[in-house]
Specification:
With 311 residues, the chain is an alpha/beta fold. 47% of the residues lie in helices and 14% in strands. Helix 5 packs parallel to helix 8 and helix 9 runs antiparallel to helix 10.
Length: 311
């Protein structure tokens, strides 16, 4: 199969018929054998009923319905697991991503040989409260990840070789950092394509300014896990050693002036407390490092989601 299109969605019943008709026109014009996976992330409106009705009109449409709202990363990860197309394209369901971009993205993967192509919404139809935090977020991500040629990490419109999405694991809200995860997985042939951005036609945005904070925290978490996942003792042990040395030197000095020089140290009580705290903190950090070495972050339940229906 040439192509899998993954559409994560939440409360988008009004836009789905128009989106599916648009996708059908584009893939038919370019003779692409296609499957469309719509992942309903626990919608409260009629999104699932609309998907079921559309499936009768478009047999290559498949749907997965979550029992609960798990978030975009969960929806994408489930779609990635199910995708069978040689090229996988993800896009949002709100009609702000244009299906007319599909052939160009497909060509960049199949003919130009890229592992991943990320859309760049150079001209955006979003309020300033959304665009300014996004610019800051993308700037920080570029600097911290070393992927300097991307300007819109969080663009929902992306294309991948199938091998890429089968080697990228998503959790939490890590969908923002799929290019970073792909690069760390060894797929560093990453490109960017300027794509058309549409004004939202139906509904309201599901994202607020708070995602700037959570996005930054996710990035710090991701960088920490990448660097220390296989060697947590390098982090905890190093800081434990530093604090242990500080505390040990401080207490040894106080013991020396009391036991050898015979000087009372009652006036140096703050220094003694500081030394004891440092020594204890060093021991705790060192012990945490040892425990982290013994623990695996890979829980068998980490990426299991309660699916209510499939078609």
């Amino acid at each position: 199969m040439n192509l899998t299109i993954i559409v994560p969605l939440y409360n988008e019943d009004e836009s789905l018929p128009e989106l599916m008709a648009w996708i059908h026109r584009v893939v038919s014009e370019h003779n692409l054998t296609t499957e469309v996976l719509m992942i309903d992330d626990g919608s409260k409106d009629r999104s699932w009923e609309v998907i079921v009705a559309l499936q009768k009109q478009y047999p290559y449409l498949k749907g997965i319905r979550f029992r609960n709202n798990y978030g975009k990363s969960a929806a994408l990860f489930t779609g990635f697991e199910a995708a069978i197309g040689d090229v996988v394209i993800t896009m949002d369901a709100d009609l702000q991503d244009s299906p007319d971009e599909i052939p160009g993205l497909y060509k960049m993967i199949t003919e130009d040989g890229y592992d991943l192509v990320s859309g760049y919404k150079q001209k955006r139809y979003d309020p300033i409260g959304k665009t300014l935090p996004s610019k800051f977020f993308n700037f920080v991500t570029r600097k911290m990840s070393g992927i300097d040629n991307l300007h819109d990490f969080n663009c929902g419109l992306k294309a991948y070789r199938n091998e890429v999405i089968k080697n990228v694991e998503l959790w939490g809200d890590m969908h923002r950092y799929i290019p970073v995860l792909a690069k760390w997985a060894g797929f560093d042939n990453i490109a960017e394509k300027i794509v058309q951005h549409q004004e939202r036609k139906y509904g309201v945005s599901k994202f607020g300014v708070s995602r700037l904070i959570t996005g930054f925290l996710d990035l710090v978490s991701l960088l920490f896990i990448h660097k220390y996942l296989k060697k947590p003792m390098h982090f905890f042990g190093t800081w434990g050693f530093i604090f242990g040395i500080i505390g040990g030197v401080m207490l040894s000095y106080l013991a020396f002036i009391r036991m050898v020089l015979g000087i009372w140290i009652s006036s140096k009580m703050p220094a003694m407390i500081f030394g004891a705290v440092c020594l204890l903190l060093g021991f705790m950090l060192f012990s945490t490092g040892l425990l982290a070495e013994l623990m695996s972050r890979n829980s068998p339940y980490k990426n299991q989601y309660r699916i209510k229906d499939k078609i």
